[in-house]
Specification:
123 residues; three-stranded mixed beta sheet; GMP Synthetase, Chain A, domain 3
């Protein structure tokens, strides 16, 4: 495994742990860190997350994470051994929303097919 991959995994793990156990901001909802990306020079990291809730909860969580970014960056800097602590940014991961939409559409199609099977034919 390449060094950049190990650093990316460490940052993802530590960010998740910090958000789950150390942040006390009531704006931050049930957050799951889904992935992290790091630049090739290890100076910038994007942390992707999803949050359980509606658009208002997402917005509040984004505000809370942005407010906590300096703290999270400091904690990552203490836990992940790098020459420079990367600048971090949080990005909402729409992948889970897309997957749920596909699941809902498939369930709707399945329900419609069952209804059609129940209807007597007009022959």
């Amino acid at each position: 495994m390449a060094r950049i991959d190990r650093v990316r995994e460490q940052i993802q793990h530590e960010a998740s742990k910090i958000i789950q156990t150390e942040l006390k901001d009531p704006r931050i909802g049930m957050v799951t860190v889904t992935k992290a990306e790091i630049s090739s020079d290890l100076r910038h990291a994007k942390i992707y997350y999803t949050v359980y809730g509606d658009a208002r909860q997402r917005r509040e969580t984004q505000e809370g994470l942005e407010s906590a970014t300096p703290f999270i960056r400091t904690q990552i800097g203490q836990r992940v051994r790098l020459r420079f602590t990367p600048e971090i940014s949080f990005v909402f991961d729409y992948g889970m929303d897309k997957a749920m939409r596909v699941y809902d559409l498939l369930a709707q199609i399945e329900a419609e097919n069952r209804e059609q099977e129940k209807e007597p034919s007009c022959e």
